[in-house]
Amino acid sequence: MAKKEFRFKGKTLEELKALSIREFAQLLDARKRRSLMRGLTHQESSLIEKIEKKDSVKTHARQAIVLPSMVEKTIRVHNGKEFVAITIVPEMIGMRLGELVGSRKMVTHHAPGVGATRSSANISVRG
After folding, report:
1. Contact 57, 76 (CB under 8 A)
2. What span, in angstroms and rounded, lies between the C-alpha atoms of 127 and 110?
3. What is the tens place of the pLDDT at every residue in 94-117?
4. Where are the domains of the chain?
5. End-to-end distance of the chain based on CA atoms, in angstroms?
6. Which CATH class is domain 13-102?
7. How many whole angstroms separate alpha carbon 109 and alpha carbon 127?
8. pLDDT 10s digits, 23-48
Protein backbone atom coordinates (compact mmCIF):
# COMPACT_ATOMS: atom_id res chain seq x y z
CA MET A 1 0.00 0.00 0.00
CA ALA A 2 1.41 3.39 -1.00
CA LYS A 3 1.99 6.06 1.62
CA LYS A 4 -0.62 8.81 1.50
CA GLU A 5 0.74 12.13 0.24
CA PHE A 6 0.56 15.03 2.71
CA ARG A 7 -1.85 17.83 1.83
CA PHE A 8 -2.71 21.01 3.73
CA LYS A 9 -5.98 22.58 2.59
CA GLY A 10 -5.60 20.74 -0.73
CA LYS A 11 -2.01 21.87 -1.39
CA THR A 12 1.10 19.68 -1.39
CA LEU A 13 4.21 20.53 0.61
CA GLU A 14 6.04 21.78 -2.51
CA GLU A 15 3.12 24.09 -3.38
CA LEU A 16 3.08 25.42 0.20
CA LYS A 17 6.82 26.14 0.14
CA ALA A 18 6.35 28.15 -3.07
CA LEU A 19 3.77 30.45 -1.40
CA SER A 20 4.69 33.74 0.26
CA ILE A 21 3.86 34.25 3.93
CA ARG A 22 0.81 36.39 3.04
CA GLU A 23 -0.51 33.75 0.61
CA PHE A 24 0.08 31.00 3.19
CA ALA A 25 -1.76 33.09 5.81
CA GLN A 26 -4.93 32.92 3.67
CA LEU A 27 -5.03 29.14 4.29
CA LEU A 28 -4.99 29.47 8.11
CA ASP A 29 -7.78 30.13 10.59
CA ALA A 30 -8.68 33.73 11.48
CA ARG A 31 -6.48 34.28 14.53
CA LYS A 32 -3.31 32.89 12.95
CA ARG A 33 -4.07 34.63 9.64
CA ARG A 34 -4.44 37.98 11.40
CA SER A 35 -1.21 37.40 13.31
CA LEU A 36 0.75 36.77 10.10
CA MET A 37 -0.93 39.60 8.19
CA ARG A 38 0.07 42.12 10.88
CA GLY A 39 3.70 41.15 10.31
CA LEU A 40 6.28 39.06 12.09
CA THR A 41 7.68 40.07 15.45
CA HIS A 42 11.43 40.53 15.87
CA GLN A 43 11.68 37.10 17.56
CA GLU A 44 9.77 35.38 14.75
CA SER A 45 11.72 37.04 11.94
CA SER A 46 15.07 36.22 13.55
CA LEU A 47 13.89 32.60 14.02
CA ILE A 48 13.09 32.34 10.30
CA GLU A 49 16.48 33.82 9.37
CA LYS A 50 18.31 31.37 11.65
CA ILE A 51 16.31 28.35 10.43
CA GLU A 52 17.27 29.16 6.80
CA LYS A 53 20.98 29.03 7.73
CA LYS A 54 21.04 26.05 10.13
CA ASP A 55 19.05 22.86 10.64
CA SER A 56 18.86 23.22 14.43
CA VAL A 57 18.08 26.40 16.39
CA LYS A 58 16.99 27.40 19.90
CA THR A 59 14.10 29.80 20.48
CA HIS A 60 11.88 31.32 23.14
CA ALA A 61 9.26 32.28 20.51
CA ARG A 62 6.49 29.87 21.53
CA GLN A 63 3.90 32.02 19.71
CA ALA A 64 5.63 31.53 16.33
CA ILE A 65 3.55 29.72 13.71
CA VAL A 66 5.09 26.70 11.98
CA LEU A 67 5.67 27.65 8.34
CA PRO A 68 6.26 25.23 5.43
CA SER A 69 9.90 26.35 5.23
CA MET A 70 10.48 24.90 8.73
CA VAL A 71 9.63 21.30 7.75
CA GLU A 72 12.35 18.72 8.50
CA LYS A 73 14.23 21.19 10.74
CA THR A 74 14.90 20.71 14.47
CA ILE A 75 13.77 23.55 16.71
CA ARG A 76 14.57 23.60 20.41
CA VAL A 77 11.66 25.44 22.08
CA HIS A 78 11.90 26.76 25.64
CA ASN A 79 9.22 25.37 27.95
CA GLY A 80 9.99 27.68 30.87
CA LYS A 81 12.72 25.50 32.33
CA GLU A 82 14.68 23.94 29.48
CA PHE A 83 14.83 23.73 25.70
CA VAL A 84 12.85 20.78 24.30
CA ALA A 85 13.87 19.57 20.82
CA ILE A 86 11.15 18.94 18.26
CA THR A 87 11.58 17.92 14.64
CA ILE A 88 9.02 19.63 12.45
CA VAL A 89 6.95 17.27 10.29
CA PRO A 90 4.42 18.38 7.64
CA GLU A 91 1.45 17.65 9.92
CA MET A 92 2.63 20.44 12.27
CA ILE A 93 2.22 23.19 9.65
CA GLY A 94 -0.05 25.97 10.90
CA MET A 95 0.38 25.13 14.59
CA ARG A 96 2.16 27.33 17.12
CA LEU A 97 5.46 26.11 18.58
CA GLY A 98 4.02 26.42 22.10
CA GLU A 99 1.33 23.86 21.24
CA LEU A 100 3.99 21.31 20.41
CA VAL A 101 5.97 21.67 23.66
CA GLY A 102 4.08 21.44 26.94
CA SER A 103 5.02 23.86 29.70
CA ARG A 104 3.45 21.95 32.59
CA LYS A 105 4.17 18.49 33.95
CA MET A 106 1.66 16.28 35.70
CA VAL A 107 2.24 16.27 39.45
CA THR A 108 2.55 12.86 41.08
CA HIS A 109 2.60 12.66 44.85
CA HIS A 110 4.44 9.97 46.73
CA ALA A 111 4.65 9.01 50.39
CA PRO A 112 5.70 11.86 52.73
CA GLY A 113 9.36 12.11 53.67
CA VAL A 114 10.73 10.99 57.02
CA GLY A 115 9.86 13.52 59.71
CA ALA A 116 7.28 15.33 57.54
CA THR A 117 4.46 14.83 60.06
CA ARG A 118 3.84 12.99 63.32
CA SER A 119 2.02 10.24 61.47
CA SER A 120 4.98 9.63 59.17
CA ALA A 121 6.79 7.96 62.06
CA ASN A 122 4.33 5.05 61.66
CA ILE A 123 4.89 4.65 57.91
CA SER A 124 7.37 2.08 56.72
CA VAL A 125 10.40 3.69 55.10
CA ARG A 126 10.81 0.78 52.69
CA GLY A 127 7.24 0.95 51.39
Report:
1. yes
2. 11
3. 999 999 999 888 888 777 666 666
4. 13-102
5. 52
6. alpha beta
7. 14
8. 999 999 999 999 999 999 999 999 99
